[in-house]
Amino acid sequence: MTEEFLLDENRLKSVEENYKRVLDHVKESAVRAGRNEKDVRLMCVTKTVEPPYINKVLELGADLIGENRVQEYLGKRDELNLSGVERHLIGHLQTNKVRQIVGEVDMIESVSSLKLAKEISKVSVSKGIVTPCLIEVNIGREESKSGIFSEALLDAVYEMAELPGMKIKGLMSIPPVCENDEARKYFAEMKQYFIDIKDKTIDNVDMEVLSMGMSGDYEAAVAEGSNIVRVGSAIFGARKYF
């Protein structure tokens, strides 16, 4: 990070306490929903978080991290203790950054268009790998967010399933900012799309991952079927942009 960075011991302790609390809440939410607590994974979202604080949660057993920005992840990756840790790119991905990130993470969650999928496919084939991907759904039809509208989702699934070098592993979504009761409706809608696509047994499509729920609404997401929740500020504190 920057030369001026100084480790904050109080924040380090807070991160440890927050991680343990959020992990407990995720497990409790799963049990309340009649699910096995092991069926829901906690992703620690590391946007703007310095490596020592990320390494603290990894030391505590976190095995899944999500980064929003290609350059930020690549810039701090070598300072992270990533042995046995799954790494996802969860932020908006521009086509001109695809070559830099393909092969550097275990999954790209934010495949928001056929154009992007085609670039991921092309780069993956050139590198001789298959990239696991989630299709990002713009469930609230918000102009400010990327993602595929629900009415175009099935066609997108079939088109992306034909692309070599990538494997569709599920869906990802961010609902509009709203109260948890309303968010649950969006999450429930996403779960239905997930089930419907899974039931079609499309070649090159494994509906295994439903990634939804963040710091403010992950408990509602778990109640509606999410199996990855993406939590940043509730673990690391408010973001500090640099």
How would you summarize what this structure contains?
The chain has 242 residues and is of the alpha/beta class.
Give the topology, please.
Layout (H helix, E strand, L loop, with lengths): L8 H24 L8 E5 L5 H9 L4 E4 L2 H7 L9 E4 L8 H4 L5 E5 L2 H14 L3 E7 L15 H9 L4 E8 L6 H20 L5 E7 L6 H6 L4 E4 L1 H4 L6
Parallel strand pairs: 1-2, 1-8, 2-3, 3-4, 4-5, 5-6, 6-7
Helix pairs in contact: 1-2
In words, what does this structure look like?
This protein has helices at 9-32, 51-59, 70-76, 98-101, 114-127, 153-161, 180-199, 218-223, 233-236; strands at 41-45, 64-67, 86-89, 107-111, 131-137, 166-173, 205-211, 228-231. The model has no long low-confidence stretch (mean pLDDT 94). The chain starts with 8 loop residues before the first helix and ends in a 6-residue tail after the last helix. The chain has an eight-stranded parallel β-sheet with strand order 7-6-5-4-3-2-1-8. It is α/β, with parallel strands linked by helices and 242 residues long.
Features:
eight-stranded parallel sheet, 8 strands, alpha/beta, 242 residues, single chain, 9 helices
Shape: globular
Following the backbone from N to C, one meets helices and strands in this order, namely: HEHEHEHEHEHEHEHEH
Number of strands: 8
Specify the structural class. Answer: alpha/beta
Enumerate the spans where pLDDT stays under 50 for 5 or more consecutive residues: none
What percentage of the residues does DSSP assign to strands (E)? 15-25%
